[in-house]
Amino acid sequence: MQESLNQLLTTQKEMQKQMTMMVAVPVTKEGRRLEAALGRSMEKAVKANTDTLWARIQEENAKNEKLLRDRIQHVTGLISNFMNKDLPAILEKTVKKEIASVGPAVVRAMTPAIEKIISSAIVESFQRGVGDKAVNQLDKSVNAKLEATVARQIQAQFQTTGKQVLQDALKSSFETSVVPAFEKSCKAMFEQVDSTFQKGMVEHSTSVQQRLEAGHTSLAMTLRDSINSASSVTQTLSREVLEGQRKLMAYATAGANSGTLNPLPIQLNNGPLLREKVEVPLDPKQELARLIAERKFEEAFTGALQRSDVSIVSWLCSQVDLHGLLSMVPLPLTQGVVLSLLQQLACDINNDTSRKIAWMTDVAAAINPSDPMIAMHVRPIFEQVYQILNHKRSLPTMTGPDMSSIRLLLHVINSMLMTCK
């Protein structure tokens, strides 16, 4: 009976090895092919969208520049028409109006001086004598002095009063008529240009956003379907591996209950790492709690890992200070137990993700890739854990803190892979 059981266990281990290789190789190839196909499709879609967007942006920029040039030409034409047609007429009317108002002021200013000159000339002539000769002389004297005085007074008045009045009139006319009209026309034209430009930019932004959303929707659906299919494949593979390990443990338990305890290797997906005696109590948590209380950490973790029940492994990790335990010198756990613990925690990362990531980070930091006991198993298990974490990071349900923790753990595992080349 014992020999049959041993043969059955050996056959089961060989079958599990073959099943693991048969499943792992096609899944890996299919994953790489799917990753390459997704990369090519994403690259083509992004390139096509980028080219379309760039062509659209150039077309819209050309339209906006043409519209702006037309608007500027229109504004320039309006300003030229105003300067050539309306401005001279306004200036002419203003000058005529101001000259009409300046004339009476000049007459009023010159009248006292003319009256004074005439009276002085008459008095002077009468003093010299009265007669025809005196009258002629008076007429000539009055005319000469009157002409000279009037000319001087007119010149003086225009140089002082007339010039100042004309300047004030032109200034007030510009301030009241020309400048407001020019400012109003320019303001209206520039407001029209600004509204047209803003409307064009809003329409352009809306069309670009709609094109981007339409282009990314199909790509996002394709990526989501691919991610869901990869996730289902990974979960199916994990369930098959765990089921095989549970069956193996069940056979070992039956053999142990029927007679002498049989040494059984702790088998991971890539081969045996540890050999301990299997003894399955009725309540595993009580037995594990007793071993922890007795500080037999190696035996406790070995028993939990042998059950291939990730819930028991997670419960055991929650009962101890895993960070402090893995920081002890010397390490109370062998490298085989630590590596197996990392693998089983990765298979159950979907439950209580934050705690599992923290535990896996501590466990990965405690692994020595150069240890001869696990040297041949480090790379395959690390690659498997790396793929699980990378898939978990790509899910849309990941939060910011968990994403940062996964990125740190991937960096640690990648460093380990580099050292075991």
TrEMBL record:
It is found in: Cytoplasm. The keyword Cytoplasm applies. InterPro entries: EDC4-like, EDC4_C, EDC4_C_sf. Pfam families: EDC4_C. Its main location: cytoplasm. The keyword Repeat applies. Keywords: Cytoplasm, Repeat, WD repeat. Residues 290-391 form the Enhancer of mRNA-decapping protein 4 C-terminal domain. This is Enhancer of mRNA-decapping protein 4 C-terminal domain-containing protein. It comes from Stylosanthes scabra.
